[in-house]
Model the fold of this input.
Amino acid sequence: MSLTSELQAELDALKAAGTYKRLNYIEGPQGAHVRMEGRGDVIVLSSNNYLGLANEPSVVQAGIEALRRYGAGTASVRFICGTFTVHRELEAAIARFVGTEASMSYVSAWNANEALTPTIVREGDFVISDALNHASIIDSVRLAKAITKCTTAVYKHADMDDLREKLRANRSAPRKLIWTDGVFSMEGAIARLPEILQIAREERAVVVMDDSHATGVLGKTGRGTAEHFGVLGEVDIITSTLGKALGGAAGGFIAGPAALCDILTQRSRPQLFSNALPPTVAASSLAAIQYAEAHPELVTRLHENARYFRGAIQEAGFNPLPGETPIVPIIVGETALAIRMSDLLLERGVFVTGFGFPVVPKGEARVRCQVSAAHTKDDLDAVVAAFKDAGRVAGLL
Ligand SMILES: Cc1ncc(COP(=O)(O)O)c(C=O)c1O
Done:
């Protein structure tokens, strides 16, 4: 059998199991509504465009101007071919926004996460990661282990006793790293950050937090999980994305002490061997940060919308996972049912994705709703009406 026919057989099996992912094409900018090819106008409930900045005019304009000023890119990596001044401005703005001394940008948060662990741990060090951390963290830790022969462990999700116990058992490791998501993307749950910081102090460990779903989202002014808990400036290292609340194009970063960012410039492999974020995207992201700083009312609206939607969907008879973030997952059980719900909702003009195994545990497939500051109350009411109808057809209500 050839590779192609083997792959085709795997695809056929996915289709037979009802777990095949189909791409939906959109014909215009991301927003509360999009124009979807073959469907027309649909309400988007599955985007990380939390502040609605993906098509904010000043964010778009900044990208256009940067394209004119810098061209497409440097055509090589930063230390060989030069670094655009817009990257320096962006990195200063990121550090200011998330409350660290410095930051370093990457082409994605995936890239940033993968860059970090192998760069800062050595043989004999200990890395411990929450069981529900994002795939990019899991791969970063695996990569670090393969490259450096550090010791690794996973603690049960949000289980502080397990975290403490495993750190204690590895006290002799010279450097200890705790990796956690700030907001867990499939649950919408917030990390128990104050307790993690306390344990880290007791065990002399470094806390690394991926705030991809919290940057621009949590805290009164959107500075993330640390602001939410009133511990801004206390997390050792924050990684996050520019591809969600902060403009939504692409890009990610590692924020922390200036010495860390300098070491990343010296040694992190995606910096040394891969091109930087395109200047257009860097400029759009910078404009998005500036816009978010000037408009904290967007964060307030996002929080209000999330509260409103949670209440309304519960009233409609659904049982979302409890929480206070704009991620509102509705557990339906089997993967095929999550995909069916998502299809039924799309037929009713609502674009929301169903997730199943292996993204989430078996039997816990879900439709993950994500609320944006860009949604109006009418949008959210229309979504709830579509859910009621689709839920009846799917036998969920
Ligand atoms: C927690 C978390 N970390 C990292 C990423 C990757 O972000 P990016 O698209 O910038 O690579 C995501 C995206 O889904 C995420 O949810």
